[in-house]
Write a structure and sequence with these properties.
heterodimer; A: 232 residues; 3-stranded antiparallel sheet; two-stranded antiparallel ribbon; 4 helices; 21% strand; B: 320 residues; 6-stranded mixed sheet; 21% helix; flat
Chain lengths: 232, 320
């Protein structure tokens, strides 16, 4: 039998190790900092209208960073992070509960409903922890990377607010967001060193987002009135 | 294998594969696969040694309402009683973790190998590995602990982000302009800033262009702009297609370790103590299984002073 003239270009998918060649990463919590600048994102993707959704940062359970400690086997896992997390709570930060699940209608296509944080075995050993909205994708040169379904991620964050799992934003945070946009727009308009094309596209970007920010809504649960107008 | 005729005359081409002469490394050195060479220690203050301290967590106290923060009240009369001022106090903490790295080989491999890839040679690289761990801890810490985002989270990084970041420090009450600022971003964020700089006419003069676009001159360092020293690492956290880089004033972030030489007598493990890093390397030889291994233990952690003391900001951008 000769060599087949057409074969699967990525033979690892047939005969090799199917685990992704991507670094492992620790489990994480998602934290939201309601008192801080940039704690709410203005999003359009996947939404019917411009919407405010909470921004989250990953709190990696990595001993030796951010107050997380090394445990002895048999210890309660919470001991590793309880002091660090309590300190965050003392500072007014919100930690999304570990048992948060993603409903079926909010999952990206092909992703089963279930826990928010999931894992994938990686080739170098260990697991890559990621949200249900991220998946591993193969790109140029066979390089693998994490890709996020932004539409689904935005809808999920809006759902968290509508369900009351995340409190509504402080008016000061939204006001600061708009002020920052306004400052960037004015600076761009006054910038005589910017090339015409760059200036035009940047002005367009900031002014469009400024208009969207002015009419963006905060998600609410009521189906009759699914979204509430944001305080200006 | 059956004996095969080489041919007349005997040629190298004819005998090369037959006699296994395809390669000769002679004295050529072993090259390491490309890896990020960036010692994050240059960005960190050293906060102390927990050996003998009784805890894996160190606390640093801070006080307010004294020194430059205390203002004299102008008294209303010659005899008016002075009201005492309040002092405020709090503390920040840093916890160390145990981090391990081990390599193992069989006696057979060690006896037969002539390639220089020995456990002893690998042991010499463990200091670099410790630096890599500090770097990844720092990046994890930034994502978890840096608060206010000064960049535009709805776009990729650009020059406007640099200006906004610089302005955030100016806005910070008590900002000490005599101490430098450092930013640690993902390499892709830096790439986006450089691309953005190309649109700025003021930044297109040859000297300025070269300063911004030139390749790094030292590990991790890329360029200075607006008084900010920019560093880049692939370890910066990527989550939900956003990069979580950071910018801070030097002194805001530090590291602590525990000197392992306080462990007591472990001479049976043939230890090498690198107390400066909180690292100890031990050997484990198993004659019954004909294997030997080296284990490196690193006892170190990253922490941050409150932004009440030194400002630090998140630098969150979209990845693409």
């Amino acid at each position: 039998m000769g060599i087949p003239t057409s074969i699967e270009s990525d033979l690892t998918g047939i005969a090799g190790d199917q685990r992704a060649d991507i670094p492992a990463s620790p489990y994480f919590f998602l934290i939201h900092r309601p008192l801080e600048r940039g704690s709410w994102d203005l999003v359009n993707e996947g939404m019917e209208e411009p919407t405010w959704v909470p921004a989250f940062a990953p709190f990696l359970l990595q001993a030796g960073a951010a107050g997380v400690r090394t445990l002895e086997k048999g210890d309660r896992a919470e001991l590793a992070w309880s002091a660090a997390i309590q300190r965050l709570r003392d500072q007014g930060q919100f930690i999304l509960p570990m048992d948060t699940t993603v409903p079926a209608d909010l999952c990206p296509e092909g992703v089963a409903p279930g826990s928010l944080v999931r894992s994938t075995e990686v080739r170098g050993g260990g697991k890559r922890w990621h949200t249900a909205f991220e998946k591993i994708e193969r790109g140029l040169g066979g390089k693998v990377s994490m890709v996020t379904d932004r539409s689904a991620w935005n809808r999920f964050r809006a759902w968290l607010v509508a369900e009351g799992k995340v409190s509504h934003p402080m008016p000061a945070v939204l006001r600061d967001y708009k002020e920052q946009l306004g400052e960037r727009l004015v600076a761009t308009q006054r910038d005589e060193n910017l090339s015409d094309s760059a200036k035009a596209s940047r002005e367009q970007r900031y002014s469009t987002r400024g208009e969207q920010a002015a009419k963006a809504v905060i998600p609410t649960k009521s189906e009759a009135a699914p979204k509430r107008k944001a305080a200006s | 294998m059956a004996v095969t005729s080489i041919g007349i005359p005997g040629t190298h081409a004819g005998s090369e594969a037959l006699l296994g002469q395809s390669y000769n490394f002679l004295d050529s050195m072993i090259l390491q696969v490309a890896a990020e060479k960036f010692d994050a220690g240059v960005l960190l203050d050293f906060w102390g040694d927990l050996a003998g301290g009784g805890s894996d967590t160190m606390a640093k106290r801070r006080v307010g309402g004294i020194g430059w923060g205390a203002s004299f009240t102008t008294m209303g009369s010659e005899t008016e009683q002075i009201s005492p001022s309040a002092m405020s106090a709090a503390m920040d903490t840093i916890s160390i973790g145990r981090h391990g790295l081990a390599f193992e080989e069989s006696f057979t491999r060690a006896i037969l190998a002539g390639d220089g890839v020995t456990l002893e040679a690998i042991a010499g690289t463990l200091v670099s590995s410790a630096s890599k761990k500090l770097r990844s801890l720092l990046c994890a810490h930034i994502a978890a602990s840096f608060g206010s985002n000064v960049a535009d989270a709805a776009a990729t990084a650009d020059v406007d982000d640099c200006i906004a970041a610089r302005a955030a420090f100016e806005d910070y009450a008590g900002f000490d302009a005599s101490v430098g600022l450092v930013a640690l971003l993902h390499g892709t964020q830096l790439k986006h800033i450089r691309a953005s700089a190309r649109s700025e006419t003021a930044l297109k003069f040859p000297e300025r262009f070269d300063a911004d676009q030139s390749i790094q001159s030292q590990s991790g360092y890329r360029f200075s702009f607006l008084g900010i020293d920019f560093y880049a690492s692939q370890d910066i956290t990527l989550s939900s297609s956003d990069y979580f880089g950071g910018i801070w004033q030097k002194g805001a972030v530090g590291w602590a370790k525990a000197s392992p030489s306080a462990v007591g007598d472990i001479q049976d493990a043939n230890p090498v103590f690198v107390d400066e890093l909180g690292m100890v390397i031990t050997r484990d030889t198993r004659g019954g299984q004909a294997t030997k291994r080296i284990d490196a233990n690193l006892f170190a952690g990253i922490g941050q002073l409150s932004t009440d003391v030194i400002p630090a900001f998140l630098w969150r951008n979209q990845s693409a």
